[in-house]
Amino acid sequence: MIPVLSLDNMKIDPWSSTTYQDYTRLRNEFGIQEFTEDLWKDLPNPHRLLRRGIVFGHRGFGIIHNAILKKKPWAILTGLMPSGKMHLGHKMVIDEVIYYQSIGADIFIAVADIEAYATRGYTMEETKDFALNEYIPNYIALGLKPEKCRIYFQSKHQDVKDLAYLLGKKVNWSQILATYGFNGSSNMTHIFSPLIQAGDILHVQLEKYGGIRPTLVPVGVDQDPHIRLSRDIAQAHRLYNVTVTKDNKIGVFVKVDKGIESLLNDAEKTLNSLKFTQLKRITDYKAIYINDAKEEDIPKIDETLARIEPKFGGYGFIQPSATFHRFITGLTGEKMSSSKPESAIFLTDSSNDAKKKIMNAKTGGAVTLKEQKKQGGKPSECMIYELFLYHLIEDDKELKNIYTSCKNGEQMCGNCKKYAAELIEKLLLDIQNKRKTATEKIKDYLS
Ligand code: TRP
Ligand code: SF4
Questions:
Q1: Closest Cα to residue 145, out of 100, 202, 175?
Q2: Best mutation site among 416, 419, 423 for ligand 2, i.e. most ligand atoms within 8 A of its Cβ?
Q3: CB 278 within 8 Å of CB 292
Q4: pLDDT class of 11 with cuts at 50, 70, 90
Q5: Ligand nearest to the CA of 96
Q6: 361 alpha carbon to ligand 2 midpoint, in Å?
């Protein structure tokens, strides 16, 4: 976690929530990389969710970073579960998507209707209603643009479904069982849904959808199992493997048993075009060793070789990258959840309802005013502060001021809540307004 602010030369971390420890553990246990400053600092107008450590982890963001800076094509694919009403927790992903759209990504959004049907007990008709009347209009109201943007339903996308079936060839049951903990009474549509999600994530690299290119999947950290599966699948279907060998050389290995000669020939030509000249080919090992390559060269070599794989009947998928964001806490201090309306602010809430929820929210204030003036408040345990941090305050200086004056006992919760209520009213009215014309625009987004 990046200490984003520093006070009195002491590094502090005003972005952390009470569950910060858990996010560190998550990273350590699952091998998620830390989303460090060097990954976002030089992006154009880095988004507040990136700046503030709310996006706390990633897998393979380096190649996305590189594509953005070098202005090369790249794609975003994410998905939504169309179940119930959309709240501030759901807004985060789309905030990120809109930011990435503004800096040049091709956007794809999967409506996970098959998954919602399989796991949430809705009919297909209901999931469609949720998507068309709730999620997509809100996405449009929040500022998603139709250019270079496709929203599709899993159940209607033949290429995604075909891929799901074909990609499953290199996934076995033990792997699924270990990753997802299914059991004998799990329904088959549910069991199959991770493969559909892999189809979602990888289909954007098919020729028809823009071809082989870095793809970023911005998600909540609960989606990491799907990310790992999709990355494994992408790798498993590759024809070439580029890696560091045991004796510390960079090697390109052909992974299949047919057409080895021509695969090696083309790899050689490709490596030459990348200006590597000290190549040693050992056909028996199906290998080319590159004596003038360094470990840092691997991503570039891998990407370039991926692009020639379709010629040999492969997919050439580049492993998809992912970022993970923290979950916003509910106003009550528990999880923000649609099933507990008092914990969540829905994008369709009236400003009055939202105000009431804010007034009842759990804060980091002391029991009495007197005590709070003396000891200060605890913004890092405050749901109002979290609203500012995630959604309501764009200016980092203003946020820092609130943080500091709360800690110093200058800021009182009553005023703070009033300010949050004003800001949320502005936000909700704006969304409400833009939603009025959103429905007629939906067709511009659907494929
Ligand atoms: N499984 C995701 C969820 O529960 C939805 C989803 C479907 C998704 N396909 C996706 C997310 C592809 C990211 C990428 O919300
Ligand atoms: Fe939260 Fe504001 Fe109260 Fe501080 S003063 S605890 S930030 S509501």
A1: 100
A2: 416
A3: yes
A4: very low
A5: 1
A6: 11
* Cβ 69 vs Cβ 44: under 8 Å: no
**Ligand 2 neighbours by CB, cut-off 6 Å:** 363-365, 377, 379, 382, 384-385, 406, 411-413, 416-417
**Which strand (E) or helix (H) includes residue 22?**
helix 20-30
DSSP secondary structure, 209-238, as one string: GT-S--EEEEEEGGGHHHHHHHHHHHHHT-
Evaluate whether 29 touches 56 at the Cβ level (below 8 Å).
no
Cα 220 to Cα 329: distance, rounded to the nearest angstrom: 13
Nearest to 88 by CA among 349, 322, 432: 349
* Structure tokens belonging to residue 421: 């209520």
Note if the pTM is more than 0.85: yes
- Convert the pLDDT of each residue in 262-321 to its tens digit: 999 999 999 999 999 999 999 999 999 999 999 999 999 999 999 999 999 999 999 999
Mean pLDDT score of the chain, rounded to an integer? 93
Q: How many residues does the chain have?
A: 447
* Ligand nearest to the Cα of 359, by number: 2
% of residues, the chain, pLDDT over 70: 95
- Residue 83 CA to ligand 2 center (angstroms) comes to 32
